[in-house]
Amino acid sequence: MATVYDIIKGINQAAANAYDGTHDSRYTEEGKETPIGLNREEGCPINDSRVMDGFKVRMSGPKLMITYQSEIPMRDFHNSKMADEIEQIYSKIASFLKKEYKKITGETLTLTSDGDADILAQNMSKVRTWVQCLKTYTVGGLKDVVPVGEPSEDRLEAGFKTFLEQGGFGKRPDNDTRKDG
Questions:
Q1: Whole-angstrom distance, CA of residue 30 vs CA of residue 37
Q2: What's the pLDDT tens digit per position in 22-63?
Q3: Residue 114's pLDDT is what?
Q4: If I label 119, which of 29, 75, 96, 176 is the partner at 20 to 30 A Cα–Cα?
């Protein structure tokens, strides 16, 4: 059974293995291609124009938040199926993270989607658009983690609690000549 620290460390290493070039066997140590499913993997990096896209991960309690960003041409921005395409990219990213996590730790990673991706598209020029997306997953196996936003319980020591109830430091010393208030 993995600890919370081991699970987070495995997820971070799996995301770190998604550097640009992992999809090309010329740039990997094992000589194997490991496609992620990003748009930058299509075409030749020397001859074709590159698509700038990538993702990052962060944890918030038992939730894994995957942020995806990309540049898209304006003709793709007006595509009515852009949300579906982004959901497909997210499913490929989640699949990649699960495979890499299994390869690194030898254990399985369970990611449950918490809904659709939040998509923010902004114009950079009349030709290109910048897209930022966020999708949240619940990580299975994180039992000891308290969700962010839940109220905390008071765990003050009795001595400190009585100190606070007295109103601070108590009465003023005899050599204190400051005015009250």
A1: 19
A2: 656 666 666 666 667 777 666 665 555 666 788 999 999 899
A3: 93
A4: 96
Nearest-angstrom CA–CA distance, 147 and 61: 5
* Mean pLDDT for the chain overall: 81
71, two tokens: 């540049």
CB 73 within 8 Å of CB 53: no
DSSP state, residue 140 = T
Sign of CA dihedral 24, 85, 98, 18: positive
CA-closest candidate to residue 89, choices 132, 25, 128, 50: 132
What one-character-per-residue DSSP string does 6-33 give?
A: HHHHHHHHHHHTT-TTTTSGGGSSSS--
